[in-house]
Design goal:
Strand content: 5-15%
Domain tRNA/rRNA methyltransferase SpoU type: 74-210
Mean pLDDT: 90
CATH superfamily of the largest domain: SPOUT methyltransferase, trefoil knot domain
Pfam families: SpoU_methylase (PF00588)
Strand order of the largest sheet: 3-2-1-6-4-7-5
Number of helices: 7
Oligomer: single chain
Organism: Nocardia jiangxiensis
Region (Disordered): 1-35
Protein name: TrmH family RNA methyltransferase
Length: 223
């Protein structure tokens, strides 16, 4: 990724304060190393992207290739029939946990603001409908697990998620569609103890993904 392809300056979760690193010479006082993973423009102009320090100055392609070596087996799917604003959060969390891919079902367009540009490094696929998603899951030998607080759902806290699975989330409000739930091998719910009837879809996705991480991932490989 060249410096010219970086996200435009603007507010982030850190506010307006700039983050990242400046030009390599300014930061380290030496000439930049000869490493094919590094972007000459970023080395010369600095790297203000939302990436971990280990990826500073790396090209976008090098970052994706490195994550691909460490991606986990689970996939995430979210229905987007109502232009759900939570999709950006789901993508960002999937990137943090190195999900194999995020699948968006329904409308192709989605609100990218919540992703904080992490969609540049996360594999994202689109399916026009649930049938298309289920065909993909069958080809990829993925167990479909719907996440929704509905009668008959099994508490997430009591199950072991399949290693090769597709975690399926519905949009805010309606939840997972009936077609999706009927095709899922299991539907799991997230235990709640307060007054609200449901958890934000983006938050629910993060809880479910971290449950998979806690059960299957190697913590020594985390940053």
């Amino acid at each position: 990724m060249s410096a010219g392809d970086q996200e435009l300056p603007g507010p982030t979760e850190w506010g307006e304060h700039p983050y990242g690193v400046g030009p390599w010479v300014q930061e380290f006082g030496t000439e930049p190393p000869q490493d094919p993973r590094l972007d000459p423009e970023l080395l010369a102009e600095g790297d203000r992207r939302n990436v971990v320090d280990a990826y500073r100055y790396w090209t976008r392609e090098a970052i994706i290739a490195d994550i691909d070596e460490r991606r986990h087996e689970f996939h995430v799917a979210i229905e987007n029939f109502g232009h759900d604003a939570n999709i950006g959060t789901v993508v960002r969390t999937a990137n943090a946990f190195a999900a194999a891919a995020v699948h968006i079902v329904g409308r192709r367009r989605w609100n990218r603001r919540g992703a904080m540009v992490t969609d540049r490094y996360q594999h994202i696929e689109h399916h026009a409908d649930i049938a298309g998603l289920l065909e993909f899951a069958e080809r990829a030998n993925l167990v479909v697990v719907a996440v929704d607080n509905v009668p008959g759902a099994v508490p997430l806290e009591t199950v072991r998620l399949p290693r090769n699975c597709l975690l399926l989330f519905g949009q805010e409000g309606p939840g997972v569609t009936e077609q999706a739930k009927s095709a899922a091998v299991m539907t799991v719910s997230i235990a709640q103890f307060g007054s609200t009837r449901s958890i934000n879809a983006g938050v629910a996705a993060g809880i479910a993904m971290h449950t998979w991480i806690a059960q299957h991932a190697d913590p020594s490989r985390a940053w």
